[in-house]
Amino acid sequence: MSVFPYLVAAWLFIVGLYGLVTSRNLIHLIACLTVVQSSTYIALLSIGYQRGGAAPIYKEIPTSTPAVDPLVAALTLTDVVVGAVVTALLLAFAVQTKKRSGTLDPNELRDLQQ
Amino acid sequence: MTTRGRLTLFVLSAVGLTAVLVASLTGLPRFGSDAGRYGRLINRSAAVERHVPEAVGAVTFDYRGIDSFGEESILFAAVLAVALVLREQLDEDDLPYKLDEDPGAVTAGETTETVRLVGMTFLPLVVLLGLSVIGHGHLTPGGGFQGGVVLASGLALLYVAVDAATFRTALPDGALEPVEAFGLSAYAVIGLLGLVFGSAVMDNFLPFGHLGRLVGGGTIPLLSVAVGIEVAAGTLLVTAQFIDQLVRVMRSRSAR
């Protein structure tokens, strides 16, 4: 099916959001956010793929060879690395939350003061 | 709002969101069909104009170089925020990281001889791999972002193989922070030099050289190295903050 990768991306997005909403643990919540991020990577890369296309490296092949879109690949690769560090920031928040209030359950963290 | 109410609201919105997502994503050109016009243009011209065989590297550091500057600034800000969030609190002690202090008492035990041997054997190999991925960013898939993470993983093997005290003494914050700042500012300076020597900011003003050589492509390998330095130092700083946090928690637990 030629729309299957897009459906996979949409499915991952919805499932990640469901995990986010119904999460009972901050670490699990952050992992669900990572799933939502990966759905965007899949959507981006699926847009750029070309059937029968080569990798966009033109050392041996002539530049007229059809190749995969390099633009979305560049967007995705920078995003993956930056996303990992932002996830680290979220985990740092989770660590301090556990230390301050003793719980990682978002339902019990609703009040701002203890 | 109760959990039940929240879930109901989510399911209702998710149905609508799914419909919109599926409708819009299937309206795109079919998977595998011809890529966008910009992509085709870059594929045709990257090797010819910039003498850089890898089009993705040319996009990251030349055609869309300003976006990569934004991305590494996000990384810099995230590292800063981690250091801020995990800083020493008022009720915690400062950490004396001396090598002669017994490391086993601080972290979760000593590592075995085998782990130490294997880890220290792999450390220079992984560091070399990271440097290679950074340096060849314009020739093969790789570049500053990925290579920086590989380099940081190699240096973090010092913590995995030995202990926290050695890792923090060998790579203290006072050494990592200036290196990270240098990486970020080098990118900005090279971009501004494009304004001085070229026609616009982020202009590729250095000579392009021959296709496929290690030194070539103008500012692309230089920007890749700057990003690699910044990403590696930033990732090591984040790792160090988490290790410090672990040590503080274990120390406060053992003090009680």
Structural notes for this entry:
The complex is a heterodimer of chains A (114) and B (256). With 114 residues, chain A is an all-alpha fold. Helices cover 64% and strands 0% of the residues of chain A. Chain A is built from three helices and no strands. The longest helix of chain A is centred in the C-terminal third of the chain and has 32 residues, at 70-101. The model of chain A has no long low-confidence stretch (mean pLDDT 88). Chain B is mainly α and 256 residues long. In chain B, helix 3 crosses helix 4, helix 7 (144-161) packs across helix 8 (164-170) and helix 9 packs antiparallel against helix 10 (220-255). Chain B has ten helices and no strands. The longest helix of chain B has 36 residues, at 220-255. Chain B is 71% helix and 0% strand. Classes of the chains: A mainly alpha (114), B mainly alpha (256). Chains A and B meet through helix 1, helix 2 and helix 3 of A and helix 1, helix 2, helix 3, helix 4 and helix 7 of B.
Which structural class best describes the helix and strand composition of chain B?
A: mainly alpha
Task: List the chains of the largest interface with their residue counts.
Answer: A-B, 57 and 68 residues
Task: Please write the string of helix (H) and strand (E) elements of chain A.
Answer: HHH
Shape of chain B: globular
Radius of gyration of chain A: 19 Å
Task: Compute the number of helices of chain B.
Answer: 10
**Rg of chain B computed from alpha carbons, rounded to a whole number of angstroms:** 23 Å
Low-confidence stretches of chain A: none
**Largest sheet entry of chain A:** none
Order of helices and strands of chain B: HHHHHHHHHH
Count all strands of chain B and give the number: 0
Estimate percent helicity of chain A: 55-70%
Mean pLDDT of chain B: 86
